[in-house]
Amino acid sequence: MRKHIDIKLFILPVLIIVSLIIISFVFSSQIKILKQQIDNIYFANYVTIDKLHNIKQDYIKVVYGKKNIPKYKKSILKNWNYYIKQYKTQKEKQIIKKINKQILLSFRKKHFKNIQKSLYSITYLIKYEKNSAYEQRKKFLQKYNSMKSYLLYIQIVVILFTVVISSWILYIHNRYTKDLEILNQKYKVEANTDGLTKLYNRKYFDKIFDQFIPISKENNINSVFVMIDIDFFKQYNDTYGYDAGDIALKKVAFALDDIFKKDYEFVFRLGGEEFGIVIFNTNLNYIKFMLEQLKKHIASLKIAHKASQTGYLTLSMGVVYCDKSKYNLLPRDIYNQADKKLYHSKQNGRDQYTI
Q1: What is the DSSP letter of 318?
Q2: Cα–Cα distance between 80 and 119 in angstroms, integer?
Q3: What's the pLDDT tens digit per position in 275-310?
Q4: CA distance 349 to 355
């Protein structure tokens, strides 16, 4: 009789252990699948959208810059061929086939209408890819909720085996649920904004800036970080009051947001009178042009500032251009370099930028 009981006591733990192993295996597999889905949502579309964006820019140069289309043919075809090689559904293939025909026709002489159609089609594809990522995320959330329900049922079954093991199952559940929350928070892009200026705040800047080098390196692109400071802002507040200072901050923020509004251009309020700009996939000529536009825009506002040498509110800027030579740096290295360049601008008379 005792031997029979011992066998039962031995079988029960074995069943519990086997059950837990199966649960752990299934759960771990699901986590990997979910992580892959998250990666697909937030990063897999990055390269394809970037290629489409390059094509769009080339067509814009042809349409609005009155450039010759043959000059951009090689660049357009290279990016387009990369895009169409990615996985596509049957319906997507049919649409792409039509657009491909338009693009090929756009390279012929006297086919300006086809160039315009191609530009419209590429713009449509960019929006489509973004919407596709949104739909993938919806599916992920549905699977995530279904998985939580599934795990709950598994826990109930295991608890029926033994009361003692219930605490262990609860521990497993809490541990992996926490892991899922961490993964979700890590890849979820939140538009955290500053209350005064409505720009992205410092918290969101830290999230984006942590990925500044990895994204640039992974996609083999050049990126830029700009640190901006309002000149003599303490004196401005002392002269005109803090309410006027807040109004000035809002005007500067609006100018920044109005000028840097393309895809992959992010504008932040870093704190006080300090702002930051992060731009992915760019070049030095574009940055110089845009910063000159910013200077002109601020000058056109003519915000009176008696304590400033110009008589008006101005900006000093430090710029770091990140190419392949800087892929091995840490975010804090880029930040410190921008800070030094900002200091250089201030030391050399302010109302300028240093790259």
Answers
A1: E
A2: 12
A3: 999 999 999 999 999 999 999 999 999 999 998 989
A4: 15
Spatial separation of the C-alpha atoms in residues 116 and 36, rounded to whole Å: 37
Q: Which helix (H) or strand (E) holds 271?
A: strand 265-271
In terms of Cβ atoms closer than 10 Å to its own Cβ (0-12, 13-18, 19+), residue 202 is middle
Cβ neighbours of 117 (radius 10 Å): 18
List the one residue out of 210, 214, 216 whose CA is nearest residue 322.
216
pLDDT tens, residue by residue, 50-89: 777 888 888 787 777 667 777 788 888 888 888 888 767 7
Bridge partners of 319, per DSSP, are 226
Total Cβ atoms within 10 A of residue 187: 16
How do beta strands 265-271 and 274-279 pair?
Answer: antiparallel
- Tokens read off for 273: 């009178």
Class of residue 186 by CB neighbours under 10 A (exposed 0-12, middle 13-18, buried 19+):
exposed
What φ, ψ does residue 226 adopt, rounded to 5°?
-120, 125
User: Residue 97 carries which DSSP code?
Assistant: H
Can you give the C-alpha Rg of the chain in angstroms?
Answer: 28
Rounded to whole angstroms, how far apart are CA atoms 48 and 64? 24
User: At 352, is the secondary structure helix, strand, or coil?
Assistant: coil
In the block, residue with structure tokens 């010759």: 68
pTM (two decimals): 0.48
